[in-house]
Amino acid sequence: MRLLILSDIHANLDALEACLAAAPPYDGVANLGDIVGYGACPNEVVERARELGEIFVRGNHDRACSGLTDAGDFNPIAYAAATWTKRTLTEENRTWVRDLPRGPITDATWPKLQFVHGSPLDEDDYILSAPSAEIALESSPFPVTFFGHTHVQGVIGLQGRELFTVNFERGRRDRQTVSRVSLEDEVRYLVNPGSVGQPRDGDPRAGFAVYDAEEHAITFHRIPYDVPRAQHRIVSAGLPDRLAARLTDGR
Ligand code: ZN
Fold first, then answer.
1. Model confidence at 168, in pLDDT bands (50, 70, 90)?
2. CATH architecture for the domain at 2-249
3. What is the distance in A from the centroid of ligand 1 to the CA of 197?
4. CA 18 / ligand 1 centre spacing (Å)
């Protein structure tokens, strides 16, 4: 049984389609939130996400772009994008985004896993530092917690009292790369599949992950996609130029 893990698509249809085309066969899909916000194709991406199903967690941009929160804590560029997205979403799609569930989410089919947007403790927390990772891992009874929000693909493990990170080869940016991590039974993991639509780890390729329950292993994928096309859509929509520019560098 394989689970496709998508996060932080951010209304980037070109990146999402490239990921789905490159993904190996899977039996289910978990979506860790921030389906919309920043990118120019919120309706198309919401509709694709709805078709894919099936495990969903809401993100902070999903809340702001559907009017559930007022986006008052967003920077001016994110605020402009949230306002544009709220206006652009159809009423049906906006309602669907607004009603996405708050994490942590669990699913009986995948008993070893939990799914969050930010952290198991707070959906808006960023797990970027060792202390925040340690607190999250100590609070969680699940062998594997999938999280997003930081847009940085990676693995953090806790074995006994020892925290460690797993690094993988990045490879060439014009090619697809796949890195495999075998999970150990005595370790608890925090796993970020990477951002589909707006990577921020210096690699502009779209990121996603696939969990294999039988092998208790995860593969991490980086997929080149048509960045100029996504940028053209952003500029044409009248969204801030910076949202297009940052896709070039993955920052
Ligand atoms: Zn995000």
1. confident
2. 4-Layer Sandwich (3.60)
3. 9
4. 19
Q: Is the pLDDT of residue 143 over 90?
A: yes
What is the CA(195)–ligand 1 centre distance, in A?
7
pTM over 0.85, yes/no: yes
| Ligand 1 centroid – CA 207 distance (Å) | 13
Is 80 exceeded by the pLDDT of residue 169? no
pLDDT digits (tens, 9 = 90+) for 11-32: 999 999 999 999 999 999 999 9
Closest of 228, 191, 236 to residue 7, by C-alpha: 191
Ligand 1 center to 141 CA (angstroms): 25
Provide the pLDDT for residue 139.
85
Enumerate residues with CB within 5 Å of ligand 1 (an ion): 8, 34
Q: How far is the CA of 166 from the centre of ligand 1 (A)?
A: 22
